[in-house]
Structure formats: C-alpha cells, structure tokens
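It would be a great kindness if you could assist me with a short task in structural biology. The matter concerns a single protein, recorded as an amino acid sequence and a row of backbone structure tokens. The record follows directly beneath this note:
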Amino acid sequence: MNTKNPFLITGAGASVGLLGGLIGLGGAEFRLPILISIFKYSALPVVILNKTMSLAVVASALPFRASVIPFYKIAENWNIIVTLLAGSLLGALYGADLATKMKTHTLYKVLSILLVIIAIVLFFGHNASSPSEYLLSGISLLVVGIIVGFFIGVVAALMGVAGGELLIPTIILLFGADIKLAGSMALAVSLPTMIVGFARYSKDKSFSVIKLEWRFVILMVIGSFIGSFLGGLLLNYIPTGVLLPLLSIILLISAVKVWKHASGKET
C-alpha cells in the first residue's frame, strides 16, 4: 500500500473529520491511531503532526460556530475560560515537555492509555447535562477548575488534540453551561492551550516533521474539513445511543493497536 497516495491521505482525513463531525468535535483522537497504524509515523512525530492538524481545525471551527454561538456569548463567560486556561496553559507546557523526554515505547503506552480514557469519557460524558445543584462555588470552584484545566492541558499536549471531549463535560458539569455554549467555550480554551503546546514542541528536533510532511498535513486537513461537513449532515440520522458506543469501541480498538506498537520501539 502506498501510504503517500494523496487520495488515501485525504480519505483518511475525511474519515477523521466524519467521526469528529458526528459528535461535534475535531476528531484528533481518531486521527492519532491512523497516523501510527496506516501512515507509520513514530510516536513523537505523530503527536506533533496531530497537534498541527488539530490547530488548523480548531482555528477554523470557532468562527464557523459564530452563527450559532456569537462571540459576545463566549466573552460573557470570560471567567470560566480564564479559570480553565490558568490550568490548561501550564498543563500544555508540562505535557509537551514530558512528551519530548519520553522514550518512544513509553509514549506509545501513554497514548494508548489516554485513548482508553477518552473512550470512557466519550461514552459517559459527552451527553452530560447541567446538574440541578452544584457542589462547588467561589474559591473551591476556582481551584478545582484550575486543577482540572491543568490535567486537560497535559492530555491535550501529550496526544496533540484539542481536548474537547474532556473540556465540554467539564464546562457543563462544573460551570453549568449548556452543551452548545460549552462547545464554543471549549474551543476558546483549546486554541491558546494548543498554541502553547505547539510552541514548546517547536523547540524539539522532531518538529522538523512538519516541514518534511507539509503536503501530507494540508491533504489531511482538507479531508478533515470535508469529513466534518459530511458528519454534520449525517448527525440527525444516527441515534446518539448507537453512535457514542460505536465511537468508543473504535477508540478502544485503536488503543490496543497503539499499545502493540510499544513493543520493540525504544529510543
């Protein structure tokens, strides 16, 4: 199989975008195992490539959603965004630094475990609804928000993802936002968090993979946009009760495949 075939690359990007579009997210979690299993990139270049493509998708998604959730609605909730960013920016720096220092086989195992966690959160948390009563408020909510933001930033940096699967249920459950607003707020948190992680990765020698594979990145991003559009069109035709378990199973299978790559992969 010619893994540099432009139709294969664009098609793979479209499949990622389709899966992400069906759940209203960028789909980077699905892209990561594809980059490893089909296109045979090693662990750290995979994360860097995934981060690059995720950044492009997220940067375009925020203005696209402006017709549904105006920017002023997001700005009204600046305190929630700042709280999460206070943790996620530090988490992104720490996660990216950690990834560049890990041995390849260790990073594969970490990615595999994180895929399992994302699958669980996707299954149980994506349809979260705001609780009628909140256990936290004031300083305690601020502290917990920063701590949760930190861990989300670490996960996002380690996987090269936007972290929407974790951010959306967090914003709903902790801060009481409705799901549409939570999606746009998650993007507002993700974008600067990803930029910080991206800046840290730019200092590592593996960052050269972007220059070497720029055509690959462009084709995958184009495919992702096409797939996201199609996923949005199909959203009303596939029951959530079927969709979320199916996508969770895909992530679990991917996690097993990524784990297998850890054997004999050491730098």
User: Anything to note?
Assistant: Residues 6-260 form one domain.
